[in-house]
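Tutorial handout. Part one gives the primary structure; part two gives the three-dimensional structure as tokens.
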Amino acid sequence: MTDTTYDVLAIGNAIVDVLAQTDDQLIADEGLTKGGMSLIDADRAVSLYEKMGQGQEISGGAAANTLAGLAMLGAKCRFIGQVAKDQLGEVYAHDLGAVGVDFTHPPRDGDVPTGRCLILVSPDGERTMNTFLGASHYLPGSAIDEKAIAGAKIVFLEGYMWDPPEPRAAMRRALEIARESDTQIAFSTCADFCVHTHRKDFRKLIDDGLIDILFANEEEAGILEDSDPEAAIESLGKDVPLLVVTRGPNGAIAVKDGERFETKALPTTVIDTTGAGDLFAAGFLSGHLKGESVTRCLEMGAVAAAEVVSHFGARPEQDLTKLMAEKLG
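Part two.
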């Protein structure tokens, strides 16, 4: 047995979010799907950035956002991801360290810059994401710290990383190590296009018993099961030990050992939905680590999600521990 070093170790895209308010006309003119996420190349990133207007740069990435929330709630966390040896890479590493997340993997030399996600935020708070993966696309297998994974309580993997071959291979190795140890495996499907593209692989991970906690929104769950969301929740709840499905303003559902739990979304003014699912996962996993009931974990997720949608960016601005105490007692 390896002594536990981290509560949660996550592998994910190291992405800097560039957010700008826009109207729906720009989204239509650019041929984008409102509320969707598209992968773009470097040329498209430059072209779209020039049309966005003034933006705000905030370190992001799905798994890293979840770790930031967890660290703010007292968990000991480590992130494995790839940045480039450039200014955004330095900013990214600094931002993670500032919230208490260990991030020690060295930056990558070469011409490929640190990844960034151009996020167009509509007046209703909906975000349309355009992601240039950059250096994060090249996370090597050598980045996998086998001892740290074996010693962690939870390994958290993001579906976005399943696309490029190098990170996918690294994640498969992490899954092997985690399954050989007492490390729980949490997996987030992240986006509908991820499930459309990798449905067969994701389904095999489930069928092979490699996922202990599955996070998805209701649309992603439906795509994964090729059914309506309600039927998907019922079937997925039988296939994974713990299923967590977010439903935006309609709250969230969890299924554990065949028992279903629900919570409502907290009322809040929605400014930007970027990171809502990521922070929901942070709140939920924080409660899970502390041995809280499933209902309490859902409520903690709802509090964290409500905080992050109330402002720009996918990292909390308020003291989450204090907020949990105020909202939940």
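Part three, for discussion. The chain has a mean pLDDT of 93. The two ends are 36 Å apart (CA to CA).
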